[in-house]
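Exercise 7. Predict the structure of AB hydrolase-1 domain-containing protein from Lecanosticta acicola.
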Amino acid sequence: MAATDSAYEQATRLLSQRNLHQKIWLPQTSTHARLRVTFSTTTNFVEDESLPVVLFIGPMFGTRYMGLMFDRMAREIGVRMICVDRPGLGGSMPVKGDQRVDVWLETVPVLLQHLNVKHVHIMSHSAGTIYTLNTISRFRDMLHPKSPYVALLAPWVDNKCSNVGLMNAASKLPAGAFSYWSNLNEFISQRVMPASLWSGGLFSSMAGRFQAQPGEADTGDSEDAQEKYGVDKKTTGEIEALSGRYAFAEDMSGGNDEARLCVKKLGAGAWADCEDYMDFVGALSRREKERMGEDGAASRLKVRMHFAESDVLIGKGGQRYFEECWKQDGVAESIDVVSKEWPGSNHDSVLVDSKVGAVRSVLEEIKRLR
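Solution. The predicted structure, encoded as tokens:
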């Protein structure tokens, strides 16, 4: 980029890179038409195919533009990353609410085949937990055989198990109330805070009344801007603003059903294999024990849980419940589980803040394992 380019021009050029605007097509089935799925990869994806691949399964309003946020760090550490727009987000075509998880599960193998990737490590955030648990349930062999690894950042927890006041109120709203969710969140992204700084949209915006926002609302200091994007603070501000604007210029209506999914307003079974986390972990543990065999030759599945110090979307009750799920009898024999809380972080900053968040730690551990 030329030194004379304005911050806006630099941001536009970075957000226009081809790696951020890729697509595949899912074939028509008996339940849906042919579907376009848009995604991004980090800029090093085709440079060195020996580098480990991290599939990022993002939050409620996470889009492929998050790939730019990860790009500099991924290149520095030596990993490659994939970020996918779920149905009705960005350029991915919408589906019925109760098909969201099923269509995601159709997407994963088609996408990895398209990219010529056999094995991945998974990092998820917030609502991405639901999709992640279903992914490892259905496609366990997609995890790397020598270092099967899943990192769950600020994992989403059913409010019946977390009993958080904010989410209690949201869960009592009628399902129809979420039909305007994406419109409200478009307003937030343009007027309140950049879309790349929040995961739960209006949930996160309301939560901001009770907890500190990640870094500063104006994208933090110059050092943080350099580490995240390799540009100055002003250009970072343009990137944060434009990424949300671009995403909403395509489609974010899928956020309506994402919200319904999170508060279980899509009917029984919408969370598929992880409808009950306690049951899910127990079943996963038993399958992992069978996989290891009597000689224990297979590598143990590594599950890393990264919690925010202050998370008003799941609270300490949700954290305790989620940790207890992974402390069941027999789990430690087949799954290597580690839980960590990140001081100074909240539900969003545990992902997006390079100073107090968990992403660097996750990517560095993945690199060491390989």
